Each structure stands twice: as structure tokens, then as C-alpha cells.
Amino acid sequence: MTSTTEPTEPLSVEQLSATTLLRFATAGSVDDGKSTLVGRLLHDSKSILTDQLEAVQRVSAGRGQDTPDLALLTDGLRAEREQGITIDVAYRYFATARRRFILADTPGHVQYTRNMVTGASTADLAVVLVDARNGVIEQTRRHAAVAALLRVPHVVLAVNKMDLVAYEETVFAAIAEEFTAYASELGVPEITAIPISALAGDNVVEPSANMDWYGGPTVLEHLETVPVSHDLAHCHARLPVQYVIRPQTAEHPDYRGYAGQIAAGTFRVGESVTVLPSGRTSKVAGIDLLGTPVDVAWTPQSVTLLLEDDIDISRGDLLVPSKDAPPTTQDVEATVCHVADAPLTVGHRVLLKHGTRTVKAIVKDIPSRLTLDDLSLHPHPGRLVANDIGRVKIRTAEPLPLDAYADSRRTGAFILIDPADGTTLTAGMVGESFAAPQPVSEDAADAEDAGWDF
Fold first, then answer.
1. 109 DSSP 8-state letter
2. Could you give the CA distance from residue 115 to residue 89 in angstroms, rounded to a whole number?
3. Which of 114, 136, 206, 269 is the most exposed, having the fewest neighbouring CB atoms within 10 Å of its CB?
4. CA distance 200 to 320
5. H-helix or E-strand spanning residue 24
6. What average pLDDT does the segment 13-17 reach?
7. At what angle do helices 138-149 and 169-186 cross, to 10 degrees?
8. Is residue 378 pLDDT above 60, yes or no?
9. Residue 53 CA: distances (Å) to CA of 88, 206, 414
10. Nearest-angstrom CA–CA distance, 148 and 370
């Protein structure tokens, strides 16, 4: 066993608490080498347990392979290993001295594109793989569109299998230019292109000696240094009520607390709050955090708020600052990605789940479906089938307090559920489809002129 596979000392609790957390998702078409990239990333960053590596080596040797098949580290389902494709979202947790990571390895096959919505919905960054031999294909554009719809702030284009195109800079440059133009048109705010070979390890964790023309970061270096702006603490404060705590004991005869995880923003004792959708108001009398009273709490802490007034509040209500309350509406216009096998049609009766609240709803109209080839809109398709992205208009039975998805990825999102069997039908984002394209700054233009050193 070489030194690169020897286990390192685990990070201490103090070291882990001092590092930031990056949630990122990987996406790529079939055979682009995504699982191999993830395996290489875990292997070369020494994030694999010895018994895991031995199991992979044993299975690889049984197949007649001379080297470990690192894709087996993520393709855990038997069907995935037999077919050589990723089917389900696989989550991996690892850490380096500089940062902690939660990785969502999402499927690349077109049949499972909808699974990317699950993996990327909470991601700070998305890694989109492209086979250097094939370039940007329809599935690549679909992954870029999903990342843009979900407002993922950072996108990495990993041009893989550079070893199979003789590490040619011109091949990489052409792919990077095409993808960057497409993703920028969708409004992706930041795109970083990195040439790699996941199989050989080029530019994954260690810089490549085969591509001296590239002066940018490796994949791991970029993941460790990309800014993670957890600005949710500075967003509109929102607390979806999950549970009303009413012990009615001799010790706490009058205790009435409203428990939940703060979805965004900050709450303070003495602050005026409004309960939505009822519109009743009160003030925060106290905040309990892990059984301890505090004066301030922020996302993503799970807390219990106590109010000065006894008002009717139950699971599904939303507590917000009175000075920053979102509008309530029964008419929802949103961009959706349909994830169910059964189509979504006009007139479809569904359940809409927003935060902790679930209400009855009906699909009033499907104004358009997105065509990913040229980003054109197919008007009034009448229905959306699995993996379709489109616009919908929904009427709910009860008013809902909705933020625009552009303002809050937590309280601007919802899902549509089949009331008959509880199947998730559609993932929705309230408001406009894509962000406005980002203008190219002079600094970015200078960096582009200087080559791929960014």
C-alpha cells in the first residue's frame, strides 16, 4: 500500500469546528467518469477508511483489474455496479484541515436527471463533468439548467478524460468557452473550468505534470477555497413552526413554545413578529436553544420561541418579523422540475408542501416548457413529463406566505405531492426561472486574456 492510501490522523473536534462547511453536488452524463472523480477525490485526500479501500481492491481484482476501481467507492447499489452507472443520490461526508464537505453524488443518466434536483437543492457548488472527447452535450446543458434554476452560486466545469485527448489545451478551451457561454446565458454567477483526468489523478487533488499550460487550482484546492457565503443569517427571518410545546407540568404550568428550525435570518428577544397566514402579531418574550435561554438565534439553529401573547399557532404556521413579512397568496407562479413518472397536467389536483405546511391545490395552467437545446419556451404544452422543466400556475385552497426563490432558497421552494399515494410529483421554485445573465467584469476579461490561470 502506498503512502497516499495510508490513513492520516483524524481531525479533532476543535479543528472541525474551526473549518467551514461546503455542500456540493456532482453531475455528469453517463460514462463521463463522475463516480471515478468522486472516488479519486476521496482516495487522494485520504478520506477513505482502510477496510473500504481493501473491499474496493478485492472487488476490482476479482474483475481482473490491476488497479482499484475508485468508482466503486460511490456506486453502492448492486444495479449501479452491474450497469456501471449511478442511479441514486449518494451522500459522502469528508473533511480536510481547511474545510468540511457534504458531497451529493447525483446520477448522470437522463432517466435520473430529476435526482439532481434533490442533490443540488441545498448545494453551495455544483461540479458538472464533461467528457473531453464528447464536449458539451444535451445532458450537460440540462445539468447546467438545473444548477441555474436552483440558484447554485458556484459551478465548476470539470473537463474529464484529458488523458484521452493527449492533454490538448485547445480541446479544453473550446469546451470551456461553449459551456461558459451557455451557463452565463442562464445566469450562473460564477463558472470555473478545470481540466482533469479522474482516472490518472490529474488536477483532482494534485496538480498535473501533463498540463503545464494550466495554472489554475485543482478540484480540491478550489473546493477548499471557494467563498461560502452563508448569507441566510442576513436574509428575511423565517421560522416554520414544526411543533407546539405545551408541557402543562407543575414546573412549567403556563409554558407555550413554538419549536422549529430557523429557515433564514435572525430572531431576537423583544422583536415584533407576525404569524402567517393568520396575520396575528406579538413580541418574542424568550428564545430557548437546547434548553438554554438566549437573546438571539439564527439559521440553521433549532429553537423554541416564546411569545408575549397566547395566540392560535400550530404546525405549518410561519413566524416572521412584522417589519419584514412576505405577502400571502393563493395564486402561485413558479418554475418546476417534474420528477414523477406520471405526467403533471392542467387540472391536476395535488398537495402543495411549503415548509411545514401542506395545503390542497390545483394546477390551473402550464404556460410553457423549457427546451434545453436553445433555451426556447414551448408554449402551453398541456403537461409535463418526467425530467421536464416548465412554468406552472397553481391555485391553493389556503393562502401561503411565499418568498421568491431568488430571495430565499428555503422559503421560496415547495413540492407538489400526489394526494392518493404521497408520491412527490414536482419540485417548484417560486418566481422567475433564471437569474439575469452576469456581466463580464474587466478583471474577468483580463483573466480570460491571460489564459486559464484563474
1. S
2. 7
3. 206
4. 52
5. strand 20-28
6. 45
7. 40
8. yes
9. 21, 20, 40
10. 13
- Among 137, 53, 98, 39, CA closest to 217: 98
- Calpha distance 152→139 (Å, rounded): 18
Q: Which residue has the cell 477555497?
A: 225
What are the φ/ψ torsions at residue 271 (nearest 5 degrees)?
A: -80, 140
Q: What is the pLDDT of residues 400-447, one digit of tens each?
A: 999 999 888 889 999 999 999 999 999 999 987 777 665 544 444 444
Give the cell for residue 123.
Answer: 448545494
Percent of the chain scoring above 70 in pLDDT: 79
Q: Which residues pair with 368 in a beta bridge?
A: 379, 391
Question: Which of 72-78's residues contact partners 24+ apart within 8 Å by CB, and which partners?
Answer: 72/39, 73/35, 73/38, 73/39, 73/42, 73/43, 73/48, 74/35, 74/38, 74/39, 74/105, 75/35
Query: Is pTM beyond 0.90 here?
Result: no
What is the Cα–Cα distance from 156 to 26, expressed in whole angstroms? 9
Q: Give the angle subtended at the CA of 234 by the CAs of 106 and 155, to the nearest 5°.
A: 30
Residues in the chain: 454
pLDDT in tens, 150-201: 899 999 999 999 999 999 999 999 999 999 999 998 889 899 999 999 888 8
